[in-house]
């Protein structure tokens, strides 16, 4: 594994010259070369030495920036890193053009094996939830706990609001959408994404909105932006059709790690009703439901998600709180937020 620090956050060398990637205060980026892929990894130094490692995996169309708020919340509990999946964020496309769930999971596994950071506290949102479910099922040795925020696991009845995203997998639809939206500004696109992904778009701060617009402008300059979106959407749809041991729900049942499931009541992409199925499929699960949250609870309610994760650590005996009083405070903070469905 080769690793290159990106102190001023330029685009990776394999990318065309576009605007730089935004890095929050206290974060750093580095480019990691692995067989067949190059990954950009966002890291936030832990509050103290010796904390257990964590890895965050974003959803379709997202990037490691989606986790910045939660990473900051949890810097006292874990040594956190967030990865840009191949073709997203600041990571260039994979050499083989494979954007399947299996390929994304392989990328995560390759990074964890090469970095020797496992086992980690593994987080996944949406597409990243499907990816990390597969990682936890096939490589339990790499996972301490699993936290899934609106995981994109197969649904029999998909919400109408999620249909347009699924249609990206249909050949020709992306080209048509690109033509129809050619005149849209980056600001218009970001507002559309926020209305789709947030339970309350008003929870986005003015600074957060500006950052999202800058990131959208940057990514629209990438020649493979829509290809990565289309192929990843197709990979997700294909994963929904798999049966046998490769079926995502079957793999959920194989996950051994303690699992925290987080679902938003206003999620327009992953059905809120799927929360109960998930709670009964993951053998060692606890469920946090947020009625006012949308698809990205870790961005809308990072404090609540962090509190639930701390409770998971206490419950599973993995908390590294500094003193007994802090440990008790963590447990007390999370009592009203989550429920254990008798997993």
Automatic annotation (TrEMBL):
UniProt-recorded Gene Ontology molecular function terms: hydrolase activity
Annotated spans, Disordered: 320-343
Pfam family, one: Abhydrolase_1
Alphabetical list of InterPro entries matching this protein: AB_hydrolase_1, AB_hydrolase_fold, AB_hydrolase_sf
Domain AB hydrolase-1: 55-300
Keywords of this entry: Hydrolase
PANTHER family in alphabetical order: MONOACYLGLYCEROL LIPASE (PTHR43798), MONOACYLGLYCEROL LIPASE ABHD6 (PTHR43798:SF5)
Descriptive protein name: Alpha/beta fold hydrolase
Source organism: Streptomyces coerulescens
Lineage, broadest ranks: Bacteria, Bacillati, Actinomycetota, Actinomycetes, Kitasatosporales
